[in-house]
């Protein structure tokens, strides 16, 4: 397949490099020092599942330089989505379908503001990976799962072809016939994990083993389940409790990408995680005081480490 990957970071770099190693024609859109390093030596993925390196000519510096593609994968941080969507609207990708592997429940609506509704597939991913240095993506652990699905009958063919490509690449991939439910299910877990690990400033092992932070984790997920329901995705009454049980099975040192970004003084995806829950809850008249408090506590860090002390 001809696959354009917009954003060659933890997610796009990892999955794109695996697809390229399996013989697919992958073009990355990258920028800055990362792009320069990829152009010098290719994109290196260091992974416990085996390292891979792409060819140095696999990257371009803008969406405008992409040629015809069978699929465009979007893997930029959420604050860049609107800009990417606007550029994709005038790209020469031949109207290729677009699959966002970004976190959260807002991304596809943002893409649909600039792109035709039927071109936006649904998807999500489960992985821990980040840019370790320019040109290098580090994959932690063995988890590297993608779930995606069609929202429109015309998308079924590309979804099937992409599943085959992912299987050839050795990634753990699956098609869902109810992809919006899967996206909300991951969102409930991620909002709970990111809110608690970032405010407690410790991985899940600490959060889940203290009585009050455990209650906080459950209640944040319960608020998000209520929001899913108000948004038309009928997660059942036991979902938050089951996610809490799932959190008990995770390695004690597992944390969220938002906690990791907080520790490194990076910008946070907070406005689309607890902040996004609180804002949407306000609009739909659903109580979400826990998420609002988390969003308020972390607000000074949302654009990166605050200056002045
Ligand atoms: N990392 C992870 O383990 C996981 C991340 N996710 C989600 O996946 C999404 C992507 O995250 P992640 O991979 O960590 O992000 P990264 O920051 O690692 O990678 C994104 C890359 O895209 C680049 N970029 C942004 N806009 C453009 C553009 N217009 N043209 C070219 N390059 C661009 C960024 O450059 P620059 O640095 O200059 O901004 C950066 O190099 C997020 O929504 C995240 O929540 C989901 C599951 C796990
Ligand atoms: C929970 C996890 C690590 C799973 O992919 C994630 O998506 C994140 O922290 O951003």
TrEMBL record:
Pathway: Cofactor biosynthesis; (R)-pantothenate biosynthesis; (R)-pantoate from 3-methyl-2-oxobutanoate: step 2/2
Keyword DNA-binding annotated: no
Ketopantoate reductase N-terminal domain span: 3-150
Family matches, as InterPro entries: 6-PGluconate_DH-like_C_sf (IPR008927), 6PGD_dom2 (IPR013328), ApbA (IPR003710), KPA_reductase (IPR013752), KPR-Related (IPR051402), KPR_N (IPR013332), NAD(P)-bd_dom_sf (IPR036291)
EC number(s) stated in the UniProt entry for this protein: 1.1.1.169
Membrane-spanning intervals of the chain: none
Record's keyword terms, sorted: NADP, Oxidoreductase, Pantothenate biosynthesis
Catalytic activity, as annotated: (R)-pantoate + NADP(+) = 2-dehydropantoate + NADPH + H(+)
Residue span(s) of domain Ketopantoate reductase C-terminal: 178-300
Xref: Pfam families: ApbA (PF02558), ApbA_C (PF08546)
PANTHER family from the UniProt entry: 2-DEHYDROPANTOATE 2-REDUCTASE, PROBABLE 2-DEHYDROPANTOATE 2-REDUCTASE
Known role: Catalyzes the NADPH-dependent reduction of ketopantoate into pantoic acid.
Family the entry assigns: Belongs to the ketopantoate reductase family.
NCBIfam families, A to Z: apbA_panE
Protein name per the record: 2-dehydropantoate 2-reductase
Organism field: Streptomyces edwardsiae
């Amino acid at each position: 397949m001809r696959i354009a990957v917009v954003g060659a970071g933890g997610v796009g770099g990892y999955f794109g490099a695996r697809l390229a190693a399996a013989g697919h024609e992958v073009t990355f859109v990258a920028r800055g020092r990362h792009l320069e390093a990829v152009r010098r030596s290719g994109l290196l993925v260091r992974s416990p599942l085996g390292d891979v390196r792409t060819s140095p000519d696999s990257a371009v510096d803008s969406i405008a330089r992409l040629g015809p593609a069978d699929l465009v994968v979007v893997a930029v941080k959420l604050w860049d989505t609107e800009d990417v969507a606007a550029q994709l609207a005038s790209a020469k990708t031949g109207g290729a379908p677009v699959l966002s592997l970004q976190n959260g429940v807002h991304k596809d609506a943002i893409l649909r503001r600039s792109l035709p509704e039927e071109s936006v597939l649904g998807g999500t991913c489960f992985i821990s990976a980040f840019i370790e240095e320019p040109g290098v993506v580090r994959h932690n652990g063995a988890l590297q799962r993608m779930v995606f699905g069609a929202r429109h009958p015309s998308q079924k063919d590309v979804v099937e072809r992409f599943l085959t490509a992912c299987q050839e690449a050795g990634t753990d991939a699956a098609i869902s016939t109810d992809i919006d439910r899967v996206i909300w299910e991951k969102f409930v877990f991620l909002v709970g994990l990111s809110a608690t690990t970032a405010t407690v400033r410790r991985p899940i092992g600490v959060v889940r083993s203290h009585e009050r932070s455990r209650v906080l984790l459950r209640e944040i997920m319960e608020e998000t389940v209520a929001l899913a329901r108000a948004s038309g995705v009928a997660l059942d009454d036991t979902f938050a409790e089951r996610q809490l049980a799932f959190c008990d099975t995770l390695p004690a040192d597992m944390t969220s990408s938002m906690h990791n970004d907080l520790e490194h003084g990076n910008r946070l995806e907070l406005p689309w995680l607890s902040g996004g829950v609180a804002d949407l809850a306000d609009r739909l008249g659903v109580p979400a005081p826990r998420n609002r408090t988390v969003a308020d506590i972390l607000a000074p860090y949302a654009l990166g480490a605050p200056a002045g002390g």
